Amino acid sequence: MKKPSAFILMLIPIVILVLVIFVYPLLDTFWLSFFEFKVGRGLVFVGTSNFNDLFSDPVFFMTIVRTFAYMVGVVAVNFGLGMGFALLTYRPFKGVSLLRTIILLPMLFIPAAAAVIWALLYDPLFGLINHILEAIGLNAVAFLGVTSTAMPAVMVTDIWGWTPFVYLIIVAGLQGLPAAPFEAAEIDGASSFQKFRRLTIPMLRPVLLIAVLIKAIDTFRAFDYIWIMTGGGPGDASMLLTPLAYRAAFTEVQFGHGSAIAAVFFLLSLALTVAFLYFYLRGGED
Amino acid sequence: MSEKKPSKEEVDRRKFLKYTGAFVAGAVIAGAGVAAYNASQPVPTMPTQTVTQTVTASPATVAPTQLVQWSPRPGKPYAGTTLNVAAYQGWICYAGALKMIPDFEAATGINVNLIEIPSPDILSKPLLDFSQGTKRYDVTTTSSGFWPAYFPYALNLNKYATEDFGSLDAFVSQLEPVMQKKPVYQGALSAIPIHANMQFIVYRRDLMESTTEQAAFKAKYGRDLAQPMSYDNLVDLGTFFTRPDSGMKGFTYWGNGALGGYVYAAMCWAERHIPFIDENYNIDIESGPGHDTAVKLAQWLVDLTNKYHITPDSESSVTSGAAWELYMAGKTPMIFGWMGDYWGTARTADVTSKYGQPAGWPWVVPGGWISCWGHVADSHTDNPGAAWEYMKWVASHDVQGAMADGSGQGSWFTANMQDQVAKGYTAAGVADGISAPGATWPAFIPEWAQIENGVIAVEVPKLISGAYTAEQLVDALVAGIKTAIQGHK
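Predict the joint structure of the above. Result:
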């Protein structure tokens, strides 16, 4: 009998790990979404009632829209800034190491710590940002306490925290590009913008798509910044899907309802991932 | 290019990595097996409370009319036990007890492992653990509104109360009359109350008692600057003390998140004496006078910011801490909230040297939400005796006094309360407030846990932030309450 290869044997532990810490909780969440925890009575089977409630709740749809808007906004600015910083620093020049270090500094902060720091910066009475605003003659703004500014304020924090990650991926991609096409383009008289558009972007496409996929999925499931800085408020002005699921399960003691939100969130994430992979693979075929 | 032959050193390194990897893989597989076994165990069902009173009562160590004194059991029978206690993170009212825990540990040999959980998770997370029998916490700290939800999973304390006080009645009779039935569930003592509080308008005495301000107020409104006795009175006071030049807003309340919900509910309950739903599951705010009052007060609350402009623009982000910052920065002279969150700080030199000691007025309609917190022990705990010792210790005279000294809270044990009031620890008005006709308890139904955390705390902030009109808020509250109690009848 042929002995199983070492490769398969080495895969078994990670497969078991994935089954235990990912697949089992996922299946359990889906199962729980058909029940509800009735205080004093325990778990009660409610069928599709949790999903019916979700899909007839305009707040839930608004939360989905808001989550997508959050993701698109954060990822777009992440990439804009990341690309800008990368183009600025991927070639060596005097002081580039110091500049790279400054760009990467936000990565030192864990998201929870960054959220607390930025919440203090935004404080309407004592925060540095409002102090500067008042110093230049503007009124203080309760960024996290006003519905129109709460979510943008959290997005700024998220962008600040994760732009270095995007920057690192892009700068590594830029440094790995071959020099020959650029030299040929230079000889042909191409401008910097033409070289960027016709050479840099197409050659970086696989790297950019992977970075977009990772960052988009990560931003889609944003929790810590929102929960710490605003709790999803004021009202539900900055509520996203993951904090909503958490609140339903652990604050409102509606575990079934929270599981239903988590189940829908998983399906949306899966759809997002499949869509990105389609574009990525299609790009490979091209 | 010829292949480089691996050196002996590299071969040894490869073997080391292989054996290490195999060991780690084995450990992971073993861990996964244990986890899979645990996951396969049936979820514990709700325990049935068996009420027995067959313990022969030993002579009472404390006469029923005495203060709840505490002394360690001889011989330290629980020495070496570790007690996991879920506590409300950052709660000033518990700070006095926290400071004394080393004394308790030294006296009993019990190691208290305090697990601090922020609000509102402190109310719901231990409930999940109690109901699933995880034994994560031996004792939790929770508000009385959540007691009915916890009681099916709570340790029956009758045996311990009888051993130490002679009988269950002897223990319970030491409580304020209005509290005596609350911690007893199907004949079993299931909670020990440790905190009493009410809502007040905390105000800057230096402004309200200033002769200059009083003269100016009288000139403008034709009456004395005094405790507001109506909603219009309060608006007048707030308007008078709203001073754009200094950035002062005349009135502030806790508008952030769940706190905003509690403030609104307190106002409604002071008027109606009904906590939105009664214990027969009748929803007071669905129609009639209850509905009208709820809408009226919701409208009044948002008018404070949008119409009268006497509260901070960012009222929806004002927490108890933020309100105090506004007070200390001279940005507000009046805060509506729970007195216990300010009493201790209000009497520190930092505060008194700036504006003098703050004072407090009852709400315009006396009454509100009775704040009662207590300890509940898990029926699954492996350390029931140690849990009782800790809970009894927190309720004892010295610890309750220390808690009150720092926070102004009251005690539900009558003798403790009287002593604390006499010493000036308990904020003026708390003792009377909790017994006043308008003081209202949350409905003592298991579903209250979801109503408080899932309906009031979620929907009212939408009013304060402008997402709801007053009518929409009340409709949302009714809908949420109906969902929470669904299937009960």
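Confidence is low (pLDDT under 50) at residues 41-66 of chain B.
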